[in-house]
Design brief:
The protein is α/β, with parallel strands linked by helices. The chain has helices at about 10-25, 40-50, 70-80, 100-110, 125-135, 145-155, 175-185, 190-200, 215-220, 240-250; strands at about 1-5, 30-35, 55-60, 85-90, 115-120, 135-140, 160-170, 225-230. The chain has ten helices and eight strands. Strand 4 (about 85-90), helix 4 (about 100-110) and strand 5 (about 115-120) form a beta-alpha-beta unit. Helix 1 packs parallel to helix 10 (about 240-250) and helix 3 packs parallel to helix 4 (about 100-110).
Amino acid sequence: MLSIGIAAAAGPEVAARLAPVLERHGFHALWVNDTPGADALEVLAAAAAVTDRLVLATGVLPVDRRSADDVIATVDRLALPQQRLLLGIGSGQLRAGALDAVGHAVRRLREGSAARVVVGALGPRMRRLGAAQSDGLLLSWLDPQTAARQAVAAHAAASDAHVALYVRTAVDPAADARLREETERYAGFGAYAANFARLGVAPQATVIDSTADLGGAVAAYRAAVDEVVLRAITPTDDAAAYVSFAEHIARRAAV
């Protein structure tokens, strides 16, 4: 499966322009990561209104600032099509009690909605929780080899666990600087820096820039996990840039 990801900050108008393009080209899903000041579910509602089959996914809703009950109420208020909805959740800024908080949110979301639920996970304990208690995992910032090992472990814990992976990707040379900035920013966060060190993976090895063999890079990731989410890094954040990104991927990689 091949999907496209954007930030909620891109807004509903961008999603409404992009989603029909993704559906027409056969992409599996539009993933929207929740950002402060923007609501991933609101953005997905705009995508839902103009598509029929495209999976609508959040990657991820942080449980430290969005409770499960709030998410359920928002899904109901927006009348999101739950048969197409995948709720990715994560621990956010929580440290103490993060496993318990995420586990509680998984249970409540599965009780209160018909949507599938996956857990955004860096460390091994959160990955085990996601594989065992939810519908799967959303991984991030991994090279194909490490992603494959983590997917094998998840499938060993639960054979039907769905393993998706965010891969930051730039296809336009004008976006490479933004990709480098994003990579360096995450590499500077304590939890991510520790994870890179623990895995022995260089941050730059976990992204795809415009100089890469796009088809080969995407194929390597697709061999590793169930779903590859190409998180679009574009020169600008207007709808035309995201549409251009998706159409470039559709031409160069087998959707």
